[in-house]
Design goal:
Layout lengths: L1 H52 L7 H4 L8 H7 L4 H31 L5 H8 L1 H4 L2 H11 L6 H8 L16 H26 L3 H9 L5 H27 L4 H6 L11 H10 L4 H31 L1
Keywords: Cell membrane, Membrane, Transmembrane, Transmembrane helix, Transport
Pfam families: BPD_transp_1
Family: Belongs to the binding-protein-dependent transport system permease family.
Amino acid sequence: MVALTRTTVAGRERVRGRRHRGEDLTKILFVLPAAVAMVALFGYPVVKNLLMSLQDYTLKTFFTGAAPWVGLQNYSAVVHDKLFSDAMLNTALFTIGSIAFQFVIGLGLALFFRNRFPLGGLLRSLLLLPWLLPLIVSSATWRSILEQDSGILNRTLMGLHIVNDPVPWLNSPSVALIAVIGVNIWIGIPFNVTLLYSGLAEIPDELYEAGQLDGATGWRAFFYITWPNLRSVAGVVLMLGVVYTIKVLDIILGLTGGGPANATQTLATQSYEKSFVDFKFGQGAALSNILIAISFVFAIFYLRSTRRAVDE
């Protein structure tokens, strides 16, 4: 009787083990297509880019097929380039200026649209227009607006007697970066408004009603109710904004092409010029890997801060 019981238990365990293995295999088969797609679309380009940055990869390589291994020489060349420090500074100014104003203006508009009023939904839909337009179209439009002699902005400013002479928005090294940052702010505001508005919509109205009983109205309600509940969404918005803005290329190329006098040259535009203007693909890959590394640092910082907030 005992032997029979042991045999029955062992048979059930084998059946249960086969069932678990079958379930695990089914899970793997469902995940496998996505994993293959991720490796093919993201993994291979990243690895290939890393290998290119360690080789003397030029236009000649496409014909000869031979790209000599040079190690870290490409990284050394781009870091010691006289434009690298200026590009780093411009990248930092472009990213910080864009993110700061996009977030502040986006948060203000999200708070404004949280108040229900007639045509509020229509205005929110129209606000998405800059985000939906192709970036090259937005760049061409703003380039015509910011033209020094015939642009509508200078004509308006001179018509209102705010300025006496046309402002060289895209032609002056001291003004061009500010103009490019302004255009990028205009493009990025809808993204911030959309995510922050969705975060505000998740805050229960009961919290504000309870806060009013304790005198938490106006700015007090914002600091003690809105911001603590919106902090996680704000972190995601800022993180995504940094990762997106730090690699912006088409807006700058469409407006100034990195000029005048390299005043709007960033790491992204410098990587583009090294690869597709000078045909030094190895150095271009090295610059793009530096951009990836910077984005990765921000991602790690965000994940660690999020984990710390969850633990607390």
